[in-house]
From TrEMBL, chain A:
<dbReference type="GO" id="GO:0016209">
    <property type="term" value="F:antioxidant activity"/>
</dbReference>
<dbReference type="Pfam" id="PF00578">
    <property type="entry name" value="AhpC-TSA"/>
</dbReference>
<dbReference type="InterPro" id="IPR000866">
    <property type="entry name" value="AhpC/TSA"/>
</dbReference>
<feature type="domain" description="Thioredoxin">
    <location>
        <begin position="28"/>
        <end position="185"/>
    </location>
</feature>
<dbReference type="InterPro" id="IPR013766">
    <property type="entry name" value="Thioredoxin_domain"/>
</dbReference>
<dbReference type="InterPro" id="IPR047262">
    <property type="entry name" value="PRX-like1"/>
</dbReference>
<keyword id="KW-0732">Signal</keyword>
<protein>
    <submittedName>
        <fullName>Thioredoxin family protein</fullName>
    </submittedName>
</protein>
<dbReference type="InterPro" id="IPR036249">
    <property type="entry name" value="Thioredoxin-like_sf"/>
</dbReference>
<dbReference type="GO" id="GO:0016491">
    <property type="term" value="F:oxidoreductase activity"/>
</dbReference>
<feature type="signal peptide">
    <location>
        <begin position="1"/>
        <end position="25"/>
    </location>
</feature>
Length: 203, 200
């Protein structure tokens, strides 16, 4: 009986660790319902998706201070918020990095950056790094567009903002905007997932 | 005395074990298959000569050839008895820079054993002359460094490997049709182990 108990315990531990190892890599797929969170904003107030009663959805952007790709997209993220917030899709920016591993991404420096760039949207710290693995974000910047429905915030688009990180003027495909425009017209998003080079999330 | 076998603790325990065994088997299986991908389609006839760069940057005796993805792709499809270790990195990427010495060491250690390390920089175009070339010079890098300049990354990331999300560091190790992909940072020991698994 003791041996059986031990075996069962080993299996339980094994099963749990196997699952926890898989989960962060998996994350949300298009069509999944994204869970809400409560994270600290640069103004020290907690922010949840549920706070935005009038929103039709969200542009959740995992981004940070230090990453050159994230920096290259800062102005375009601000432009997205300015254009789509009034249409019901505000930007919610989340820094997924562990500040202990990446000093430039500390909460204090997030506050500095948000002020310098006049961020028009919440810039939240994923304290304890619990939120980004649920989404399945692997890098910065990494965009998730959610649409508010009766069943919750449904993931409609995952990926890049557009097809040219290095030169905003040379962009041909505005992936995020195309997805948002489709959602606003109650149409199916044509390109649901894209890939981009980015900085790996620091854990 | 009534005997409810369904409530017998040993029976329930057995059921639990079977269930758990099935579960852990399923999850383990998923785990081992994911990081490894094999090229299924036959290799196209590969041109024997070096891929042609679209531009060559040169400064202080350091030369780095620049490619768009089409020009670069043959580097991922060489079909011979050499094992290629292709690492995607950038000067601004801290974990990439941390693991670079391991790739350099691998390149030196396996020089005479048909192993070639190729370091593919993904720096920004405006940073090649100011950051990449001085970095290559300062570190006296011995492995071949090339520059991949193709901003439409969505069009080519999956062509490197469908499992790649686009985060760097990322590494492909291949020999002929045998190929493995890693979206991770390496220690020297782990890198050498993976090299050996593809070389054999």
């Amino acid at each position: 009986m003791k041996a059986i108990k031990f075996l069962a315990l080993t299996l339980v531990v094994g099963a749990i660790s196997a699952f926890t190892m898989i989960k962060p890599a998996a994350g949300y797929k298009v069509g999944d319902v994204a869970t809400d969170f409560s994270l600290k904003n640069v103004d020290n107030k907690k922010v949840s998706l549920a706070d935005f009663k009038a929103a039709k959805g969200f542009i959740v952007v995992f981004t940070c201070n230090h990453c050159p790709y994230a920096q290259a997209y800062e102005d375009r993220i601000i432009a997205l918020d300015k254009k789509y917030k009034k249409l019901g899709y505000p930007v919610i920016a989340i820094n997924p990095n562990n500040p202990a591993k990446q000093k430039d991404d500390s909460f204090e420096l997030m506050q500095v950056r948000a002020k310098e760039k006049n961020f028009t949207f919440p810039y939240l710290l994923d304290e304890g790094q619990k939120v980004y693995p649920q989404y399945g974000a692997t890098k910065t910047p990494h965009v998730y567009i959610l649409q508010k429905t009766k069943v919750g915030n449904v993931v409609k688009y995952i990926g890049a903002i557009d097809d040219n990180y290095s030169d905003a003027a040379a962009v041909k495909e505005k992936y995020a905007e195309n997805a948002l425009d489709a959602l606003l017209k109650n149409k199916e998003v044509a390109v649901k997932e894209t890939k981009a080079i980015g900085c790996s999330i620091k854990t | 005395m009534l005997n409810f076998s369904g409530l017998n603790p040993i029976y329930t325990m057995r059921k639990m074990i079977i269930l758990l065994a099935v579960f852990s088997f399923m999850s383990c299986k998923k785990e081992v298959t994911s990081p490894e991908t094999t090229v299924s389609e036959p290799e196209k006839a590969v041109v024997a000569d070096q891929p042609k760069p679209i531009k060559v940057y040169e400064k202080d005796g350091i030369k780095v050839a620049s490619y768009d993805f089409n020009a670069f792709e043959p580097f991922l499809k060489k079909d011979n008895d050499t094992t290629y270790v292709v690492n995607f990195w950038a000067t601004w990427c801290v974990p990439c820079v941390e693991e670079l010495p391991h790739f350099e060491k691998l390149n030196t250690t396996y020089k005479d054993q048909k192993v070639k390390v190729l370091l593919v920089s993904l720096d920004m175009p405006q940073k090649v002359e100011s950051n990449l070339l001085p970095f290559v010079k300062k570190k006296s890098m011995q492995s071949e460094v090339i520059y991949l300049n193709d901003p439409d990354a969505n069009a080519w990331i999956s062509k490197v490997d469908t499992a790649w999300s686009g985060a760097i560091p990322a590494t492909v190790i291949y020999k002929g049709g045998q190929r493995k992909f890693y979206e991770q940072q390496f220690t020297y020991e782990a890198l050498e182990k993976e090299l050996k698994s593809v070389m054999k």
